[in-house]
Amino acid sequence: MKRENKNLCLISAISLISFIVGVAVSPFAMIVFFELISPNRQSQEREAKSFFYRTMNAIFEDTYNSEEGSVSPQFMNAFKKYEPQLGKKCRLYIIDSHSDYYECFAFFPSGDVFNLVIALENESWILYGFNPRDWDSFWENAIRMSSNLRLED
Hints:
The protein folds into two domains: about 35 residues; about 100 residues, Nuclear Transport Factor 2, Chain: A (Roll), CATH 3.10.450. It has four helices and four strands. A four-stranded antiparallel β-sheet has the order 1-2-3-4.
Protein backbone atom coordinates (compact mmCIF):
# COMPACT_ATOMS: atom_id res chain seq x y z
CA MET A 1 0.00 0.00 0.00
CA LYS A 2 2.80 2.43 0.85
CA ARG A 3 4.57 1.59 -2.43
CA GLU A 4 1.40 2.44 -4.36
CA ASN A 5 1.20 5.82 -2.61
CA LYS A 6 4.84 6.55 -3.46
CA ASN A 7 4.23 5.66 -7.12
CA LEU A 8 1.11 7.81 -7.20
CA CYS A 9 2.97 10.76 -5.67
CA LEU A 10 5.88 10.28 -8.09
CA ILE A 11 3.55 10.14 -11.10
CA SER A 12 1.66 13.22 -9.84
CA ALA A 13 4.89 15.16 -9.33
CA ILE A 14 6.20 14.24 -12.78
CA SER A 15 2.87 15.23 -14.34
CA LEU A 16 2.88 18.57 -12.53
CA ILE A 17 6.47 19.32 -13.57
CA SER A 18 5.70 18.32 -17.17
CA PHE A 19 2.67 20.61 -17.19
CA ILE A 20 4.64 23.57 -15.82
CA VAL A 21 7.49 23.02 -18.30
CA GLY A 22 4.96 22.72 -21.14
CA VAL A 23 3.25 25.97 -20.18
CA ALA A 24 6.61 27.75 -19.91
CA VAL A 25 8.12 26.37 -23.11
CA SER A 26 5.11 26.28 -25.46
CA PRO A 27 5.02 30.05 -26.26
CA PHE A 28 8.67 29.95 -27.30
CA ALA A 29 8.09 26.78 -29.30
CA MET A 30 5.19 28.45 -31.11
CA ILE A 31 7.33 31.47 -31.98
CA VAL A 32 10.05 29.24 -33.38
CA PHE A 33 7.45 27.19 -35.27
CA PHE A 34 5.91 30.28 -36.88
CA GLU A 35 9.36 31.60 -37.80
CA LEU A 36 10.09 28.29 -39.51
CA ILE A 37 6.83 28.50 -41.44
CA SER A 38 7.48 32.06 -42.63
CA PRO A 39 11.18 32.83 -42.20
CA ASN A 40 11.13 35.85 -44.51
CA ARG A 41 8.27 37.61 -42.72
CA GLN A 42 10.37 40.34 -41.09
CA SER A 43 12.53 40.94 -44.14
CA GLN A 44 9.41 41.17 -46.30
CA GLU A 45 7.91 43.72 -43.90
CA ARG A 46 11.11 45.80 -44.06
CA GLU A 47 10.99 45.54 -47.84
CA ALA A 48 7.37 46.76 -47.90
CA LYS A 49 8.19 49.70 -45.62
CA SER A 50 11.24 50.59 -47.68
CA PHE A 51 9.13 50.49 -50.86
CA PHE A 52 6.55 52.76 -49.26
CA TYR A 53 9.06 55.39 -48.13
CA ARG A 54 10.97 55.37 -51.45
CA THR A 55 7.74 55.70 -53.40
CA MET A 56 6.31 58.43 -51.18
CA ASN A 57 9.59 60.35 -51.41
CA ALA A 58 9.47 60.10 -55.22
CA ILE A 59 5.84 61.25 -55.24
CA PHE A 60 6.60 64.20 -52.94
CA GLU A 61 9.61 65.21 -55.04
CA ASP A 62 7.58 64.79 -58.24
CA THR A 63 10.05 62.22 -59.60
CA TYR A 64 7.66 59.27 -59.54
CA ASN A 65 7.19 57.61 -62.95
CA SER A 66 3.54 56.54 -63.27
CA GLU A 67 4.55 53.96 -65.88
CA GLU A 68 6.11 51.90 -63.09
CA GLY A 69 2.64 50.89 -62.00
CA SER A 70 3.62 50.66 -58.33
CA VAL A 71 0.89 53.08 -57.30
CA SER A 72 -2.75 52.39 -58.12
CA PRO A 73 -4.63 55.17 -59.94
CA GLN A 74 -7.05 55.43 -57.01
CA PHE A 75 -4.14 55.98 -54.60
CA MET A 76 -2.57 58.64 -56.82
CA ASN A 77 -5.87 60.48 -57.35
CA ALA A 78 -6.57 60.57 -53.61
CA PHE A 79 -3.00 61.62 -52.84
CA LYS A 80 -3.08 64.48 -55.37
CA LYS A 81 -6.36 65.67 -53.82
CA TYR A 82 -4.83 65.96 -50.32
CA GLU A 83 -1.18 66.68 -51.21
CA PRO A 84 -1.21 70.47 -50.65
CA GLN A 85 -2.15 70.07 -46.97
CA LEU A 86 0.04 67.06 -46.07
CA GLY A 87 3.60 68.30 -45.89
CA LYS A 88 6.52 66.41 -47.36
CA LYS A 89 6.89 63.67 -44.73
CA CYS A 90 4.86 60.85 -43.23
CA ARG A 91 5.14 57.95 -40.84
CA LEU A 92 3.89 54.47 -41.70
CA TYR A 93 2.36 52.07 -39.18
CA ILE A 94 1.41 48.56 -40.20
CA ILE A 95 -1.80 47.58 -38.42
CA ASP A 96 -2.46 44.19 -39.99
CA SER A 97 -0.48 41.95 -42.24
CA HIS A 98 -0.77 38.72 -44.11
CA SER A 99 1.61 37.14 -46.55
CA ASP A 100 2.32 39.75 -49.25
CA TYR A 101 -0.36 42.14 -47.91
CA TYR A 102 -0.01 44.98 -45.37
CA GLU A 103 -2.82 47.22 -44.12
CA CYS A 104 -1.33 50.47 -42.86
CA PHE A 105 -1.92 53.95 -41.53
CA ALA A 106 0.14 56.86 -42.81
CA PHE A 107 0.41 59.79 -40.38
CA PHE A 108 1.36 63.21 -41.78
CA PRO A 109 2.73 66.29 -39.96
CA SER A 110 -0.48 68.12 -40.83
CA GLY A 111 -2.35 65.73 -38.52
CA ASP A 112 -3.96 63.88 -41.39
CA VAL A 113 -4.21 60.09 -41.21
CA PHE A 114 -4.74 57.83 -44.20
CA ASN A 115 -5.49 54.14 -44.50
CA LEU A 116 -3.63 52.31 -47.28
CA VAL A 117 -2.55 48.87 -48.44
CA ILE A 118 0.86 47.69 -49.59
CA ALA A 119 0.51 44.49 -51.61
CA LEU A 120 2.99 42.27 -53.40
CA GLU A 121 1.63 41.29 -56.79
CA ASN A 122 3.64 39.50 -59.48
CA GLU A 123 6.82 40.14 -57.47
CA SER A 124 6.19 43.93 -57.44
CA TRP A 125 4.92 46.08 -54.59
CA ILE A 126 1.84 48.21 -55.21
CA LEU A 127 0.17 50.92 -53.11
CA TYR A 128 -3.63 50.92 -52.86
CA GLY A 129 -6.16 52.98 -51.00
CA PHE A 130 -5.14 56.27 -49.41
CA ASN A 131 -8.43 56.80 -47.65
CA PRO A 132 -8.63 59.61 -45.07
CA ARG A 133 -9.28 58.62 -41.48
CA ASP A 134 -10.67 60.65 -38.61
CA TRP A 135 -8.51 61.41 -35.55
CA ASP A 136 -11.61 61.39 -33.34
CA SER A 137 -12.26 57.72 -34.09
CA PHE A 138 -8.66 56.88 -33.12
CA TRP A 139 -9.06 58.83 -29.89
CA GLU A 140 -12.38 57.16 -29.04
CA ASN A 141 -10.93 53.73 -29.77
CA ALA A 142 -7.91 54.44 -27.54
CA ILE A 143 -10.18 55.54 -24.69
CA ARG A 144 -12.42 52.50 -25.13
CA MET A 145 -9.45 50.11 -25.13
CA SER A 146 -7.97 51.84 -22.09
CA SER A 147 -11.29 51.57 -20.25
CA ASN A 148 -11.60 47.89 -21.10
CA LEU A 149 -8.11 47.19 -19.78
CA ARG A 150 -8.87 48.92 -16.51
CA LEU A 151 -12.14 47.05 -16.07
CA GLU A 152 -10.36 43.72 -16.52
CA ASP A 153 -7.66 44.55 -13.94
